[in-house]
Amino acid sequence: MSPELVTIPARGGKAAQASAGQHIKVVNTHGTQVVDAWAFNARDLTEWMSMEASRTSFMKLAAAVGDTFVTNQRRPILTLVEDTSRCAHDTLMAPCDRWRYRLLGVEGYHDNCRDNLHSALANLSVVIRATPPSLNLFMNIPWTADGLLAWGEPVSPPGSYVVLRAEMDLVVALSACPQDILPINGRTGRTTEAHFSIQ
Ligand SMILES: [Zn+2]
Question: What is the pTM (predicted TM-score) of this model?
């Protein structure tokens, strides 16, 4: 039986529990959608997947298949076991938030990954006070030898996916990034749904 495919609504978020050894498959259904990802130790939500500790562990700017993300206590939490996206998933950029959109000239409320994280966790009756750095799946942030970064456009084919293995019992949160001002979700400003399954 194939596992249930859960929709991450366009501009929204979803969270779920996964047990150690389970596989979380995140599908870029339409090929243009960045999905911000977080993971938390299910028994201690102050222990979360850390981008800075993970780069220290695998000594790369972006994980390759076989690399393991670690927590802010340096313990394995997610391993990238399969990847059809052709994208170096960004580990450098902070998740978007209301202040980011204000700096980009937006007046009034704009959907954002930070609020998506906390509302998705709230649906599981989970509250955390901080907003950890996100693993920005399918987000194309190219870098130069001089260390300069750019807002790349999407490069992942529709239906491409990553599979992450849970290395501990965890809570995973995923946000279909509503960024429609910068071109990270494509130049048209279109933001779409994405999907995931846990098996
Ligand atoms: Zn975002």
Answer: 0.97
